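Help wanted!
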Amino acid sequence: MSEPTAPPSTPGAGRPDDGSPWVHVAEMKDLARRKRKQVEVRGCPIALFLVDDEVFAVDDVCIHQERSLAKGTLLNGQVICPGHQWKFDPRTGEPEDQDGCLATYAVQVTEEGAVLVAPEPVTPRRATSNDSSTHPAAEVR
Amino acid sequence: MTEQTLVVVGAGHVAASAARALRRRGFAGPVVLVGDEPVGPYQRPHLSKERLTEGGDDGLWLLDPVWCAANDVTVRTDSPVERIAADTASVLLADGTAIAADLVVLATGGRPRRLPGVAGERVHTIRTLADSDRLRERLAPGRRIGVLGGGFLGTEVAAAALARGAEVVVFDRDPVLLARAMGADIGAAVTALHRRRGVDLRLGRAITEIRPGAEGVTVATDAGVETVDDLVVCIGIEPNTDVAVRSGLVVANGVEVDAQCRTSLPTVFAAGDVAAHDHPRYGRVRVEHVDVAQRQAAAIAATIAGRPSSFGDAHWFWTDQYDVNVQGLGMTGVLPSDEVVTRGNVADLDGTVFWLRDGLLVAGASIERGEDLSVARELMDLEIPVTAEKLGDESVELEELLEEEEVPV
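Answered by r_m:
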């Protein structure tokens, strides 16, 4: 764990209100290729996703059937869970066409490329009422 | 202009998905879901998984009564339908009453295929909640359960029976479980998985006789006779086309519908297990997977709400057996001449099989690698050329293949 040596350079990533320290979880270069990484913050698995040069952090464990989202796929800015193809917006933690939500966490990236995550969620995890394996019907184009 | 009333005949996944999608898209008229079971729409996949293993109704119900009341969605249970009378814009029920129906979605599903003379207290099929609940009581330690058919339903029932402490013996004339649906390699991996878990597999032998009796059901193959306490018959379904036939719709292997899921009557659509869909990629095909039913329902709802839509997605399905997740994408389109490429290690339950034709991806099937199929869907939809070498090379990230897309002109 280390404290940031520079102010946040990621737009929109605010410091958590409770003043808890940022946790240094990864380097930007870790995200360069696969654009996703599972990290742990105080024992809690969190998935990092790199979308349009911005890093987002959400619960790693899917709200549906507890698969790892960092093992999933990042396509067109959406995270697709490998378990049953549920789609999530990593910016908000919201699934497409389902209820429930992944917790989201504040992220900052230092000038040296260190990725820092705040341990307390910005928005909370909410369970889904759909615990079945059914894939959500995608919006018809 | 008065609002139109839409009736869904059959209160299952299509009904629930259509009702939700219609409201999301702003369809304003009353929506009535008519089913012949005593309960409203529920998760049918649970019947051979969660519900069969544990009972309970967590996540079982597809529609919340409060949402239905607030959205003018009415569920009519215990209401068998006689026929659709499109000329008078109504649906006639078996009890002689009629309900107004300017638009109809026919989603009568299917019924389990049975074997002549194989019936009685010890013989089971699974299609309804009542079927699943009845069978669960029989899945107990000390009982020997026979499963006839090693397809999706049969293998899920075997896993559930084992989880409840019963002994299980699976009979199939094919030598490998799931091979017809998933290909030989994944079939072999799933077969080995069931064998390791302790399922007694009697594969590759034709059944010569099944005799239900007071003390058990005897199943004879040319390898001998086996007696089980209960026999679960999992040999597929027949589409419920009776209502369609009585309504004058064109019916062959299911109710024939076009790409938009419209039947031979312009105000009547059909979807789900009963619909023989004219799929833009695959031609006419009737598919028995819940995701297909839901996507067809969503396309119908979009069309009815004023945005004509076809269902043209690659068919996707999954099965969960023990703690292993298996998925298939586009398997409808596989030809024997397609090139088969394996990524990862299927036998170790961590791999994907791809099918390639003329440099394009046609289908994929995964064990514990659903993420590969997310990318596969994109590669297929965008028709991005791929090579067997790269697909099979784990040092190549599949997403990188997406970046080789040519810029559209």
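OP: Thanks! One thing I noticed: Chain A touches chain B at residues 33-35, 67, 71-75, 80-85, 129-141 (CB under 8 Å).
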